[in-house]
Amino acid sequence: MRARSYRPRGCAVLAVSALALTCATTALASHPKPGRTYRGFTSAPKLEGFGAPVSFHVSADGSKLLRFSYASLGCFGAGGFRPGVSPFTGHSIIPVGTVSVTGNGHFAVTGARSGYAFSGSIHGTLTTTTNVTGRFASAGRATGTITFIQTQHERNHKPFSCGPETLGFTAKVG
User: Fold this and answer.
1) Is the per-residue pLDDT at 17 higher than 80?
2) Which of 17, 110, 116, 135 shows a CA-CA span of 20 to 30 A to 27?
């Protein structure tokens, strides 16, 4: 008597299962709420009890995140924090700008640059180059990763860089 082979049937079941899982994942993709502002915090440690904020506004058609920004004291370091006062103000808020959202609720931007000039005993500029990736876990909640490199240019010195530094973030409709 010949043994029956179930291999073709097993492969067919596996293929149908994979297709069903792919369709279910696509169906569960979330999209942002158009016209709404999302706010949250990065994974940076709290300073003086304050978390490092992240925020953005969703365009009217839901295809873009506008005014995306996050706070960081950078990878060069900072100090001299006043008790009870958030250190995440002024130049620690890093503007990224506009981030595109795909049809499946994922978003990304690569190489967004921002900078400012500083003076005092050292004159120069600090430029931050940021990459953002993420997705909408639900219509009211986004999660993602921010990776940045900073380059400091001081008068009469060669530029020097630090990073990349990576921060996670979560933001919710405010």
Assistant:
1) no
2) 110
